[in-house]
Structure formats: structure tokens, C-alpha cells
Specification:
By secondary structure, this protein is of the alpha/beta class. The chain is built from 7 helices and 17 strands. An 8-stranded mixed beta sheet has the order 3-2-1-4-7-15-16-17, with helices on both faces. Bound molecules: ribulose-5-phosphate. Ribulose-5-phosphate binds next to α2 and α5.
Length: 262
């Protein structure tokens, strides 16, 4: 099977493929959710099969758990793992300090719990996710279903005194019915356009009754692997202050990645 990847898919793919090199024998690894993370899981499955790589994976969603099992990765729960060596996950936006917006795929709660229970989090993303200031992507906030409209009003009131450009939010839908997360909650997508003080916003949101968690990942990630449409990848480490550049070729047998629908 050969199929041409679009430049964005190619960028996601090379970022995921390069990130898979960071996974070593014996590691307990947090497996992110989304199309970029799905490529990572497929690549790790390939390494398990071809190299006999021995890892235990903690998935951040039922979707990722299904895929990980399908490709032959041993899946364990976070409670079984207790602590992880590494989590690799995608993002909807990242800034120069590697603060992130996540949750476009609706898995932000498990993603944040898993990432914060890890020695290291590597974000994998195509270059289009890079922003000067977070906020163009609507910020997902996971809320309890009970009284969600009251929670939405309280969020709107809190936003008025915060450094953001917009105050509107929308209940995420799945067709005609509200989208329900793996934890049985709803998601409100906040149209903020620009987030001036992400740390303050994250703290204020989490103090509102009914809010379970928000999609801002502040100081959680210290390495980014950024993919470009032409196969280039950049490894950015904000602790070391280094940027390493590389280029990967998408080979024909890599096209097993193209049949992902996530
Ligand atoms: C899921 C996420 C994803 O990492 C984020 O939405 C990026 O997805 P993709 O890799 O498909 O662009 O946060 O909750």
C-alpha cells in the first residue's frame, strides 16, 4: 500500500517517528491521544514487533488504549504504573516556553494526569501548532454535566476580569448530542482569541465549581519535537536551551500510518 501523505500529516508523522526514538527498553510510557500521538503508537508497535522493544504503555483515552493493544503494546493503568518515565503527546497549540493548549481531541483530563505523573513530557506537533501567544485555538475546559450551564456562566463572568480577548464559550457537540469525555463529563470550548496570562487563567478556571480541568499545560512539557511538511524535524529542549535539527524520509512501508482515521 502506498499513499501520499499531506504536508501536515507528513509533519505529524516525522515528529512522532523521531519521538519514538526516545523510548527505551523497560520504560513505562504515557501514550497521548490524537492523530499525531496515534502515529507514535503505531511506530512504537512497530518497534515492539521488529526490535523486541519491551515497554508498558499507559494510554490517555479509550481510543489510544484500543490502538496500543491492536499494535501489540502492553497496556497498563496509571495506578498499576504509579509513575512513568516518559509521556509523549500531541498539542493543539504550543508557545516558545512549551506551554500548551490541549484537549482538541477531548482527552485533556487523562492527558494532564498522565503527563504530570511522568519524569518527562515530550510534545509532538506539526509546525502549524506553534504560536507566539496561546489562545487562537479554543481552550477546552472539562466540566461536570450537572449544572453545566451555571458553570458556563461562572466561567464567562470570571473571564471578564482576566487578560483574554474573548469571553464566549460553546458546549462541544458530537452531532446532535453533547460530546461526553471518557470520564463522563462535558467540554466547553472557550473562544479567548488571545491568552495574556495563561498560568493565572488556568488557576482561576480550576477554582470554579463544576470545572474538572482545563486544557492549559503550563510548565509540564520541556521538550518539543516539531515536524515540517518536507520531513524536517526540530528537537527543542527548553531546559538545555538547545535546538537540534534532523530530516526523516517517509519510506514506503511507513504508509501503514496513513490508514489512521483519528
Ligand atoms: C487530544 C489532544 C491532542 O493532542 C490534540 O488535539 C492534537 O491532536 P492532533 O495530533 O490530532 O492534531 O489534546 O485531547
Amino acid at each position: 500500500m502506498t499513499a501520499e501523505l499531506s504536508p501536515i500529516d507528513n509533519a505529524k508523522f516525522v515528529a512522532a517517528k523521531r519521538a519514538a526514538d526516545f523510548v527505551e527498553n523497560g520504560m513505562k510510557v504515557g501514550l497521548g491521544t490524537g492523530s499525531t500521538a496515534a502515529w507514535l503508537v503505531r511506530r512504537l508497535g512497530e518497534r515492539v514487533r521488529d526490535e523486541g522493544l519491551k515497554i508498558k504503555g499507559v494510554p490517555t483515552s479509550t481510543r489510544t488504549a484500543e490502538l496500543a493493544r491492536e499494535v501489540g503494546i502492553e497496556v497498563i493503568t496509571l495506578d498499576e504504573a504509579r509513575w512513568l518515565d516518559l509521556t509523549i503527546d500531541g498539542a493543539d497549540e504550543f508557545d516558545g516556553d512549551l506551554n500548551l493548549i490541549k484537549g482538541g481531541g477531548g482527552a485533556l483530563l487523562q492527558e494532564k494526569i498522565v503527563a504530570t505523573a511522568s519524569d518527562r513530557m515530550i510534545v509532538i506537533a506539526d509546525i502549524g501548532k506553534q504560536v507566539e501567544t496561546l489562545g487562537a485555538f479554543p481552550l477546552p475546559v472539562e466540566v461536570i454535566r450537572f449544572g453545566w450551564q451555571v458553570t458556563q456562566t461562572l466561567i464567562g463572568e470570571a473571564l471578564v476580569s482576566l487578560d483574554v480577548l474573548g469571553h464566549d464559550s460553546a458546549l462541544r457537540m458530537n452531532g446532535d448530542t453533547p460530546f461526553v469525555t471518557d470520564e463522563g463529563n462535558y467540554i466547553l470550548d472557550l473562544q479567548l482569541h488571545r491568552i495574556g496570562h495563561a498560568r493565572q487563567l488556568a488557576m482561576v478556571l480550576n477554582q470554579i465549581a463544576g470545572v474538572v480541568e482545563n486544557g492549559l499545560f503550563i510548565d509540564i512539557c520541556d521538550t518539543a519535537i516539531v515536524g515540517f511538511g518536507d520531513g524536517r524535524v526540530e528537537l527543542r529542549d527548553i531546559n538545555e536551551g538547545t535546538i537540534e535539527r534532523d530530516r526523516l524520509d517517509v519510506q514506503e512501508n511507513d504508509n501503514l500510518f496513513t490508514d489512521l482515521t483519528d
